[in-house]
Amino acid sequence: MQDQHLKDFLKEFNISDSQIQELYKRFTLEIRKGLSKATQKQADTKCFMTYVQDLPSGDEKGDFLALDLGGTNFRVLRVSLKGHHEAEIDFKVYAVPKEIMTGLGTQLFDHIANCLAEFVNEYSLGDQHLPLGFTFSFPCIQLGLTKGLLVRWTKGFQCAGVENEDVVSLLKEAIARRGDLVIEVMAILNDATGTLMSCAHRNPECRIGVIIGTGCNACYVERVENADLLEPEHKVDKTHILVNTEWGAFGESGQLEFVRTDYDRKVDKSSLNADTQLFEKMISGMYLGELVRLVLHDAIQANLIFVRSSDKKKFTNALAERVGCFETRFISEIENDSFPDFQQTRIILKEIFGLERASVEDCQKLRYICECISKRAAKLVAVGLSGLINKIGEPHVVVGVDGTVYRCHPHFDKYMRDAMRKLVSPKITFDLMLSEDGSGRGAALVAAVASKN
Ligand code: BGC
Asked: Which candidate among 154, 196, 222, 439 keeps its CA 20 to 30 Å from the CA of 403?
């Protein structure tokens, strides 16, 4: 893409190396604040204790149920751990209607219990009393493996009566209201924790789990002596603890203002959870498409793209009026397209926006806009991951990765690695591995490790 005007227009999305260094400094400081009792309250990244203190050995065996709430879908799973680092998984996806996402908490948990019952019946698991792991992917203060108080909703959920409550109790109450299920909830965990467990199950060098999906977060293995918030009894027999950083909240005290743009501010203001999860809003799938929508709209208005298109007016109106119309998956599809056909890009432009015959140049420009936004997201993830890798300090660190943005985007992995190479200490080598169903397998592993203890 050669157009200097468009490049200038998008300049503020291209975070420079020195800005990256500054972000790195601020991020690592925030993590240290989150870990310390004296400063956790002021920290954006709360670094919650997960009470998971063992990584899986790979020998775990047994059948488990798992619930997975907090991504694009709600799922119920049966996970059979087979030993030898293997697992078999069956699952069903259930919709969570918008009215439930923003309705009453009791309705949400009744819905979950109903789906669980349907699954148990369908798979004839009723008399097996399988232990259950609950992957609940929202920030929670954990008071143990089976107790987690929701701090606040994120990612478009906003159910009344759940914040500050123990989510496991709410689930148990909903199960009791049905009266026909006998289920033992063994653990509540975050999806980033599940991803770490599930990847460590396959690769014992895994020390970090990161989610780059609807939301964004990371969990990592910390030494107990650095876990100021962990009660002394949990430090007696154990050397490590998994920490849920909740890094999506980074920036809430202003540390990201020097790189945030007016587009980021707009996206934040129109979200259900304004002023929170600011790092997440620059990275995750719930928001990247929205950023492109707003930027593209203004770029057209400024006569930088689609200048000669006869449908220009229709296009700008659609972008202005239809919030959410530029889906994040379009970014991946557009960046995956090839010059000069831009077949997929043209399909999107035609089918979604009614724009016929886009020029090659316009397709290239659109791809450039997408690239600027996804590259920036990848660089921010790289800042966080490099901070954690250097903190762990082992000679080789494997990072387990999950989430639709990472999975579906053709170059996100490369963008991340390029940025990480500049930040990770030269004494450390790192690798990224794709998680295989972290929320399901991970939940079963946490439940398995818990029952071992
Ligand atoms: C939540 C995290 C979760 C992440 C990824 C964020 O919005 O706060 O708990 O891990 O999304 O799903």
From this structure: 222
Encoded tokens for 183: 């289920």
The model's pTM: 0.97
Q: How, if at all, do strands 86-94 and 74-83 pair?
A: antiparallel
Cα–Cα distance between 164 and 324 in angstroms, integer? 30
- For 53-80, letters b (16+ CB in 10 Å) and e give bbbbebebeeebbbbbbbbeebbbbbbe
Q: Name the closest-CA residue to atom 1, ligand 1.
A: 138
The answer, yes or no, to whether any atom of ligand 1 lies below 6 A from the CB of 280, is yes
Give the homologous superfamily in CATH for domain 48-247+435-452. Answer: ATPase, nucleotide binding domain (3.30.420.40)
**pLDDT exceeds cutoff 80 at 136:** yes
Q: From the CB of 384, is ligand 1 less than 6 Å away? A: no
For residue 309, is pLDDT > 90?
no
- Dist CA 194 CA 340 (whole Å): 42
Question: What are the tens digits of pLDDT across the range 183-195?
Answer: 999 999 999 999 9
Strands 429-434 and 216-223: unpaired
Domain boundary assignment for the chain = 48-247+435-452
Any ligand 1 atom below 6 A from CB of 381 = no
CB atoms within 10 A of CB 392: 16
Closest CA to 431 of 420, 422, 440: 420
Reported as a single tens digit per residue, the pLDDT across 326-385 is 999 999 999 999 999 999 999 999 999 989 889 999 999 999 999 999 999 999 999 999
User: Atom 9 (ligand 1): residue with closest C-alpha?
Assistant: 138
Residues in the chain, total: 453
Ligand 1 proximity of 211 Cβ (cutoff 6 Å):
yes
Give the Å distance between the CA of 291 and the centre of ligand 1. 19
Task: Provide the residue type at 303 as one letter.
Answer: N
Q: How far apart are CA 14 and CA 339, in angstroms?
A: 23
214 Cα–ligand 1 center, Å: 8
